[in-house]
Amino acid sequence: MPPSTDCWYKRVVHEKEKETTEREEEEEDKSSDEGLLLQAHHAMERMEEFVHKMWEGRWRVIPHDVLPDWLKDNDFLLHGHRPPMPSFRACFKSIFRIHTETGNIWTHLLGCLFFLCLGIVYMFRPNMSFVAPFQEKIVIGAFFLGAILCLSFSWLFHTVYCHSEGVSRVFSKLDYSGIAFLIMGSFVPWLYYSFYCSPQPCFIYLIVVCILGIAAITVSQCDFFATPQYRGVRAGVFVGLGLSGVIPTLHFMISEGFLRATTMGQMGWLFLMAVLYITGACLYAARIPERFFPGKCDIWFHSHQLFHILVVAGAFVHFHGVSNLQEFRYTAGGGCAEEGGV
Ligand SMILES: [Zn+2]
């Protein structure tokens, strides 16, 4: 058991011990010293059993103010928190219980299964629906890989977050890295189809987004990055990584013209995707709506849950845009010379 969790349990055990001692002091007249010792011993045994059962699923949600510091993340969620549970079995069983993380876990667990099924169906599409089946399945596969990694790291993090300080720290780093994977994976098919006839800028933009993505993953490994004070910085880093797509977008618009960019280039869907992601990041950073209704959004509709839903919606909108780009390329054929565009 890590030291902080150990301390928390020691405190709970100590408080129960104190209660037992006080009760026993009142009954001092009735019992002999020996009887008291026996009772205290039984009380301790019951407490140990209680702690054990808590790990094994017989736990109750607790208010924010009694959480150990490492579990205190959002002080607008007043009640409904899981206590520290240093057992992976208990953490995974808590997926089926109602608490502050239930919505966070299920939004990305279901999202992950959805993209996994969609990815499998897409990869098994007949090769005759593609101009270059192998290459295209790899670039679209990069998007699915990014989405599945992001969503699975996320639901896993929210599931084991209450295990212990060490486990929560490791999984939060994976969770943040997953967002960078989703963004990098989303760029791959979009750049491939948008710059189909200009491999050089396509390659340069890909390298740039990979460097920026690796930089975001590197900064996510710092312990301070996961702290509540850095909530705004975290949102900023990932919004910034996503917004690096503005430069290739402008490049595409200048070369193709606004009309072709919105029709052939699917800019409308990409714009909607950006709006969904940025709205999610703003709600996350500002902790809206729970900021205005502390204690009213403890279980449902708090900012992190809304952010999760918007991430899944944004990824789906991106997939829709990319599959339209793929369809356009299929209809236009593999040739470039006659188009004269990017
Ligand atoms: Zn999350």
Automatic annotation (TrEMBL):
Residue ranges of the region described as Disordered: 15-34
Family per record: Belongs to the ADIPOR family.
Biased composition (Acidic residues): 22-31
Primary residence: membrane
Keywords, alphabetical: Membrane, Metal-binding, Transmembrane, Transmembrane helix, Zinc
Organism taxonomic ancestry: Eukaryota, Metazoa, Chordata, Craniata, Vertebrata
InterPro entries tied to this protein: AdipoR/HlyIII-related
The protein's name in its UniProt record: Adiponectin receptor 2
One of the GO biological process terms: adiponectin-activated signaling pathway
